[in-house]
Please model this.
Amino acid sequence: MPKRPQKLLFFLLSTIYYLRSAATAAHAQTEPWPQDCIEQGAATLQCFEQIVANLLRLIIPLAGVAAFVVLIVGGFQYLTSAGDPKQTQKAQSIITGAIIGIAATVGVWFIFRLLNTITGLDLLQFAVPQ
Model:
């Protein structure tokens, strides 16, 4: 196996191991399951509501962390490009994409909060009508 895929595989496996071992109660479900799910013993739409709410709370921070990791990788590639114009251009495009990703993540969060303040509509709260 060539060196680069080995390093990438090692990085991915060590990252997965770290994320698995670093899980804390902050990543657990923060809201109790609705009584409709518990009493009937079968999945209902209210259970789906809770699952989507948990996913929404998790997706935006993970997108920000992923963009930050890509920014670090792009910076490392820029530092190790040794003046090669192709490698420098590639690293600059990675850094630009990461900055756009971070800005988009923060922008989405800001727009959701602004809409909540102005209209009272909470887009991060998923609710199934009764």
